[in-house]
Write a structure and sequence with these properties.
By secondary structure, this protein is an alpha/beta fold. The chain is built from 13 helices and 13 strands. The strands form 4 sheets. The protein has a 6-stranded parallel sheet.
């Protein structure tokens, strides 16, 4: 049972675009065994477009998305292997530069958050996000890693502002339009995730490449979107960034920090839902921590779902089993408690029951 509980906490990316691809066959077996609870699909073409200003992060991106019928067949095969627990099938479909499904692979394009907030009413934004959700549901996705609730603070931010991913420069605008993403997704039974906690909008660098220190630029009102959406019951899950804020933790990035995840997000803001790591294969984490330290720190910090994209030159088909063994060994050594795993397992199943129909 403990293996299955840990497995539900693991979300991976993989290469291949069809059920008969060797790598996909391995993932199908892992799903059947309960070694993973979710997968994330990527598009190499979309990633290259998104990161055109940062060439060094475009290499080695999984290319799972070629056309609508192919995606539908792939997701159907993946879901069919999830016998005991439903499978989260996730994607980054924000619109604009960050939309894995786009006109280059046979899907409609959707506007950036920045454009939507500047040109549409809330009602029009809701309608547009319903159309986006309909596209996702049609091919089988049930988790969209959106909305971005970062406030646009640094106009030179490579990860947020330059990609026009923020709804605005104040919390009120961000909250107003983030609600439309969530409500539209709810209408189509698609789970959502507020990102990137505790705020990436003031960052001067991109955590795909390495550590991003926001200590001197981060402002307290960057928590307002999270606080409001949590209070109003609209936070389905929260994704935590690989940013460093030494005012909260002098050593660890937010994604590995108990002070930030448990102290601020859980205790101060009162969030008891699913907490998701940003991709733990990003340079900020992969270049500075071992797999063992990453997994143990993330779980002890309060993370429920660990995302490993197997992108950026990393490809490890045995990763789920390695993670399960790391966690079990940590439990035997008293570094992680079974209660932590059980709580995460319960949160994940609750979200699956609420969203997967």
């Amino acid at each position: 049972m403990i293996d299955e509980q840990i497995g539900q906490m693991i979300n991976i990316g993989f290469s291949g675009d069809a059920p008969d691809c060797p790598s996909v066959k391995t993932v199908l077996t892992q799903i059947e065994k309960g070694e993973i609870g979710g997968v994330t699909l990527f598009s190499a073409t979309a990633a290259k477009l998104s990161n055109k200003h940062i060439p060094s992060v475009t290499g080695g991106i999984n290319d799972n998305i070629k056309n609508p019928e192919q995606v539908k067949r792939l997701i159907s095969a993946l879901k069919a292997q999830a016998v005991k627990y439903s499978l989260f099938v996730g994607v980054d479909q924000e619109g604009g530069l960050v939309q894995r499904l786009n006109s280059r692979n046979g899907f409609p394009n959707f506007k950036t958050a920045n454009w939507i907030a500047g040109n549409l009413s809330e009602e029009q934004a809701y309608d547009m996000y319903c159309k986006l959700s309909e596209v996702l549901v049609e091919v089988g996705f049930n988790f969209n890693f959106a909305p971005v609730v970062d406030i646009r603070r640094n106009y030179k931010s490579p990860a947020i502002t330059k990609k026009r991913r923020s709804f605005g420069k104040n919390a009120e605008t961000v909250i107003k339009f983030a609600k439309q993403v969530i409500k539209a997704s709810d209408a189509y039974n698609i789970a959502t995730s507020l990102k990137h906690f505790p705020g990436h909008g003031s960052a001067k660098k991109d955590s795909h490449l390495g550590f991003v220190d926001i200590t001197d630029v981060w402002q307290p009102d960057e928590l307002l979107p999270y606080k409001t959406l949590i209070t109003e019951g609209l936070a389905r899950s929260v994704m935590v960034a690989h940013v460093i804020n030494k005012n909260f933790d002098g050593y660890l990035p937010a994604s590995l920090s108990k002070n930030i995840i448990t102290g601020i997000l859980r205790q101060e803001l009162g969030f008891d839902g699913v907490i998701i790591s940003d991709d733990l294969h990003m340079g900020a984490i992969r270049n500075n921590y071992s797999l063992q330290d990453t997994v143990i720190n993330a779980i002890n910090a309060g993370t429920d779902i660990l995302i490993f994209s197997n992108n950026f030159g990393v490809s490890d088909l045995e990763l789920p089993r390695k993670i399960i063994d790391i966690v079990k060994q940590a439990i035997s050594e008293g570094k992680i408690t079974t209660e932590q795993i059980e709580r995460s397992f319960e949160r994940i199943l609750k979200l699956k029951i609420e969203t997967i129909k």
